Amino acid sequence: MNYQWYPGHMTKAKRMMQEDIKLIDLVIELVDSRVPLSSRNPDIDELGKNKARLILLNKSDLSDDKANAAWTEYFNEKGFHVVKVNARSGAGLKAINGVIQEACKEKIQRDRKRGILNRPVRAMVVGIPNVGKSTFINSYAGKACTKTGNKPGVTKGKQWIKLNKQLELLDTPGILWPKFEDQSVGLKLAMIGSIKDEIMNLEELALEIIVFLVSSYPGALAKRYEADETLEPYEILKHIAAFRKCLLKGSELDTDKAAKILIEEFRSGTLGKLSLEIPTDKV
Ligand code: G4P
């Protein structure tokens, strides 16, 4: 699902989040591990203050392991619990339960002191569009769990997924909005495919990808397309077109088709596990 965000949408999303956050102990925030800063909206820090916080570095099948380790340290230092996951395959999800208990330790102890035993932790999933919120809820909660809602003692209109005795999850995720003000954020989201392609010039996007790969992952284009990485970006794109036999009538090179191939292979991990941001970046 893609969203067109306008100020009105953001205000509404914020209001809904403010309401939902009152009901929970823990915010489970998903980010795309290839762009952990560009795919998060720091407004959630204000909205979720006083709550336990867990960041899931999702799509870890597509991102650089070294960068993921650096991001884990970065967010840990800022007081977040962090787990690296692949919501699509389910990799890493098993570690979450233990981390949640750890993240909510204070709340559990507070409850215990007040004589409340075994009240489940309540959590909600949040994130900008396309980070994998629905995929995560489906694979983490699965089909086995029971949904509860509109029962006495359960907030009216809210559906909770009871995962186990210790954890209940709000079944609809909170949607955050991307940080549009920053040009580089929009570009990175376009590169990973979180912004609709129709609004992008594909050749320009492919050239940005080439510039990024040559500087951050030298050798990737040479390995996949036998490209000479010392050439100008447009010459590299032309080389990819020739290498992949993307030809128009009259044997003219079809750089548009080559751009599509490059973009698809970049996004799908075919060119390797790639991270567009590392913690030292200024974003
Ligand atoms: P959202 O609710 O946050 O908007 O995201 P959603 O779950 O719809 O996921 C957006 C896309 O990201 C989906 O792909 C989904 O399969 C993919 N995705 C989610 N988690 C992971 C992950 O850990 N690794 C990888 N590689 N992909 C992930 P799609 O192409 O839109 O749909 P589909 O091809 O899965 O049908």
Please describe what this structure looks like.
The chain has helices at 7-21, 43-47, 65-77, 94-103, 105-113, 133-141, 183-192, 202-216, 220-225, 233-243, 255-268, and strands at residues 26-32, 52-58, 81-84, 121-127, 146-149, 159-164, 167-170, 174-175. Strands 1, 2, 3, 4, 5, 6, 7 and 8 form an 8-stranded mixed beta sheet that branches. The chain contains 11 helices and 8 strands. With 283 residues, it is of the alpha/beta class. The mean pLDDT is 91. The chain binds guanosine-5',3'-tetraphosphate. Guanosine-5',3'-tetraphosphate is lined by residues 1, 58-59, 61-62, 86-88, 127, 129-135.
The helicity comes to 40-55%
Q: Which structural class do you get from the secondary structure elements?
A: alpha/beta
Rg measurement, Å? 22 Å
- Which stretches are poorly predicted, pLDDT < 50 over at least 5 residues? none
Features:
eight-stranded mixed sheet; 8 strands; 41% helix; binds guanosine-5',3'-tetraphosphate
